[in-house]
């Protein structure tokens, strides 16, 4: 296990350049996630300002994992609505059992994307003014449609997808999977989780949207796509769904899985909300230039993370070079004053 190896659980790297200082944290994702690294970043912030701070609670057990195990052992509370819903069908469609054959298929897909399309890791900053206009206009359209509410995360995911595919409208399918935190869902039934607010693991469930073609995506407005994204989240924010989800992972996928494509031309996106790490809420005594996250050079194409930054949001991820150019163009249009009619 990692705990018995000689590798450090976390490394802090400080590099001083001519006009800035870079602080880097490296750690295995199996040990920490965005919530966990947020504790270290805030601890450094407190130390620099002479504030007292407490290390995250140490436990030999994984509290979230224990809650899921208890849920699995509990009487069945989900029903056929959860098992046969469109959302659960999308979830089953997007994952397949882990095997060497499936791993090789995934590796071949990633390799093809990197060689043929030039996958790049980039970060785009959506400023406070631009994001404010986008949120107001989109929420006004959603209100006019009379179909409930959407969150900032829904709107950002929808805008990014629209921007990425602005110049594409063929019949190949696109599947969007977002990550939803499960702590809040579990807390009502397992109050023990509330006693560990600084626990380093967060835990998530995947929320796949029904697949749609690039042509269908082109016809949807940002508001309409945000509504679809919200509908993908709503079933997952339910403990009955979580029980069905967990049991499906254990029984059908044997606890290990990879993402899958129906055809090699299909595309899959993973969205994760890194705001939960609260890394924007720090003050190291000087102006912050940015926040970046790197996994490894040969990254999965289509993984997007969102972070708060200077009143706006940083959108970072891996995508084709041409799509990053489309996003840059969309950002320019957001910042440009719109002509009055």
Q: What are the main properties of this structure?
A:
341 residues; alpha+beta; 12 helices; 19% strand; globular
Protein model, in words:
This protein has 341 residues and is of the alpha+beta class. The chain is built from twelve helices and eleven strands. Strands 4, 5, 6, 7, 9, 10 and 11 form a seven-stranded mixed beta sheet that branches. A two-stranded antiparallel sheet has the order 1-2. β10 and β11 (312-320) form a beta hairpin. The longest helix has 18 residues, at 100-117.
- The secondary-structure class comes to alpha+beta
Distance between the termini: 64 Å
Q: Give a short account of the largest sheet.
A: 7 strands, mixed
- Strand percentage: 15-25%
H/E element sequence: EEHHHHEHEHHEHEEHHHEEEEH
Tell me how many strands there are: 11
- Unreliable residue stretches: none
Blueprint (SSEs and pairs):
Layout: E1 11-16, E2 21-26, H1 34-48, H2 63-73, H3 80-84, H4 86-94, E3 95-97, H5 100-117, E4 119-126, H6 128-145, H7 152-164, E5 173-181, H8 183-187, E6 204-208, E7 212-213, H9 214-219, H10 222-233, H11 239-251, E8 257-259, E9 267-273, E10 303-309, E11 312-320, H12 321-335
Parallel strand pairs: 5-9, 9-10
Antiparallel strand pairs: 1-2, 3-8, 4-11, 5-6, 5-7, 10-11
Helix pairs in contact: 6-10, 7-10
